[in-house]
Amino acid sequence: MTTHQYHQDAYPYNHDGESLGFEATELRLDGDEQELPKDPSEFPLFEHDEEWNTAEFDVELSVTDETLSYVFPPNEVEGALVVAGYAPQTHGRFIEPIETDDLEQGTYSGTIVIERESYRGRVEFEPLLIRNDYRPDDDEYGRQSGRMLAHGPYVDLYLDPPRLSLSGDLPVIPADFNGDDNPGKPGAEWHVDVTDAAKPKLYLNEAYPTVVAAINAIERPTKQGLIGRVALNHLAVSMLTQFTIKAATHAVIKGGIEYDWQETLLTDLCGHYFTDGTVDEFESSLGIEAISTTINEVEAIYQQRQQPYNDIKRLLEMI
């Protein structure tokens, strides 16, 4: 399946796939110009010796007549070129408009500002062509305001060294499950270890080398890295669900929440379900009559939170 065929199938209106041009042309840290990396798709900002507070990226975003004529009705170019930003670890999002007036074929410039205190881990930029205004006609063109009509290549900013984790929630450690100090059962894919309740860990069985290699590459903007993100995000739903049940069970046994990871799972991430956050509520949710509902509700929360479809979309675009 080609990228164009994928987009024809995925969108109920004309979408031109990865047809936009995009690059960062200059980087400044606290006002000082920095040398651009050899790979224009990766900016390892954590490698800079001195700490910085503000990063400014001068970017160029280009669009062709072919794209504009494909995604807009004749003589009706009502769109904007923007850069969407997303930080998976903190789930922070932003939109930076680059050009919002009448669009024509050409290259448009803008500046994106990143405040260090607002983000952790990786921040990805994605250039987008979106529709500005609603149109009532029911045809092959996008109708709703904000519809994505085309996009460009991603640029990844690494504010911190890449770390293998479930979106920052739980450290993931590849291990030999057949070894003498086996952390999990031989044959199992993964094992959550809460022996040290203050510092829980997730072990991934090295007997599945393809999965381990892909997951170790999750911070790389490559096909293998995207496969790793898809795999880990799908595994994360079942892993974090089990981990949350263990957090609630531990709170019931100890008579309250003892650790930050319990607080994060039970009151921050699953606070819409555990609305009271009390021991009585946790105990009730683990009862025979309620446990099935609890597992389903927690799974739904993590399915929405991990949003694996974003990485699946990116992977399909590379195939």
Query: Which structural category do the helix and sheet elements fall into?
Result: alpha+beta
Mean pLDDT: 81
**Estimated share of beta-strand residues:** 25-35%
What is the string of SSEs from the N terminus onward?
HEEEEHEEEEEEEEEHHHHHH
Q: Main sheet?
A: 6 strands, mixed
Q: What distance lies between the first and last C-alpha atoms, to the nearest angstrom?
A: 7 Å
The total strand number stands at 13
- Rounded to the nearest angstrom, the radius of gyration is 23 Å
Number of helices: 8
Model regions low in confidence, pLDDT < 50 over at least 5 residues? 1-9
- The best one-word shape is globular
Helix fraction?
A: 25-40%
Explained architecture:
With 319 residues, this protein is of the alpha+beta class. It has 8 helices and 13 strands. The strands form 3 sheets. Strands 3, 5, 6, 8, 9 and 10 form a 6-stranded mixed sheet that branches. α3 packs across α4, α4 packs across α5 and α4 (223-254) packs antiparallel against α8. Residues 1-9 have low confidence and may be disordered.
